[in-house]
Amino acid sequence: MTAEPLSLLSQQGTYQPHESLALDPDSVDSQRLLRDMIMTRRVDTEAIALQRQGELGLWPSLLGQEAAQVGAAWALHPQDIVFPTYREHGVAWCRGVDPVNLLGLFRGTTMGGWDPTENNFNLYTLVIGAQTLHAVGYAMGIVRDGDVGTGDPERDRAVLVFLGDGALSEGETNEAFVWAAAQNLPVVFFCQNNQWAISAPYSVQSRVSVAQRAQGFGFEGVRVDGNDVLACLAATREAMASARSGNGPTLIEAFTYRRNPHTTSDDDGRYRSGAENDAWAALDPIERLKNYLKTSGTLDQAFLDGVAQEEEELAEKLRAGCRELPNPAPDQPFRNTYADMPKELESQMNEHLVFVEAGE
User: Model-level pTM greater than 0.70?
Assistant: First the structure.
């Protein structure tokens, strides 16, 4: 196992092949990767501004984690299934989820915001680590449907589940690892180790790296540079291909850094230094990919101008779309809890509607 994160791109933009990360860089549309990372960052920036203006109750920023998310998302096949945490705005973007719908959850107008079956991208999970068991359960279903190891690229599929380093301390995550290993399930655990579980550094959570933990459960762990989009793409592509072929789970550790506070309600200045943040800002994943494209002569001003125009259109769409999100009817939480509403819940709903109508 490699202690240092595997990398393909230097910060200066030099491509450095690695025997453990199979990738032909000429086969990758790196301009499209850059565009997706820039657009993802704009979603994040606009959402923070909307929260500061009182339009959102909360926002979990992904600043600095664009490469990990876009790289992992680009390794997916359409039939693969994604289980996110609450911070995978870049993965949602790449899967085609309307970013306005991401805002609804944090504006309080919906408990979800999108149909998980449209893009095979499940709803955000706010409970730390809970989605790992959901993912393992779904992977068990894939096996029972016979959609693993058939050799048919249009049929074989796997699950990609995201988690943060803090989720590794949760019982659900460790139970998910046990089940994934015991049943050799088609699931890839993608941990964005941003080094802080709110105010707790990773150093007080574990004595070993994230990737090393996989060894104890009996499957492979890979540690990659989470600010290197090509490394994240290559590692995830290989792990997902292995899972689809019936070779079981992999744990990927994308070693990165959360440059903004945990959420807009957090004050990270109380538990970490600005110098640490500055050091990671110098390793910005978008600038790294730009440097690579400049070095390879495939980045021109016309492309950047086009992306900038797209950014402005997206920003306007987010601002207008957020403010136009409809308030939910007061009976919606009750009606969406069960397929068939129990009598007791119906009674509670009617009582609640009377309360709302009275304006008390």
Answer: yes
CA–CA dist 320, 322 (Å, integer):
6
Q: What are the two backbone dihedrals, phi and then psi, of residue 188, each rounded to the nearest 5 degrees?
A: -115, 120
Which residue type is seen at 360? E
Burial of 188-200, coded b for 16+ CB within 10 Å and e otherwise, reads bbbbbbbbbbeee
Alpha-carbon span 72 to 163, nearest angstrom: 13
Question: Whole-angstrom Cα distance, residue 360 to residue 317?
Answer: 36
Structure tokens at 312: 């402005």
Count of CB atoms situated within 10 Å of the CB of 9: 24
10 Å CB burial of residue 287 (0-12, 13-18, 19+) is: middle
Residues linked to residue 15 through DSSP beta bridges, in sequence order: 9
User: Residue 217 CB: number of other CB atoms within 10 A?
Assistant: 18
The one-letter amino acid at 331:
D
199-211 per-position pLDDT tens digit: 999 999 999 999 9
Structure tokens given for 122: 């499940």
Using DSSP, state whether 263 is helix, strand or coil: coil
Specify whether the CB–CB gap between 260 and 61 falls below 8 A: yes
Task: Write the pLDDT tens digit of every residue in 166-201.
Answer: 999 999 999 999 999 999 999 999 999 999 999 999
In this structure, are residues 116 and 124 in contact, taking their beta carbons and an 8 Å threshold? no
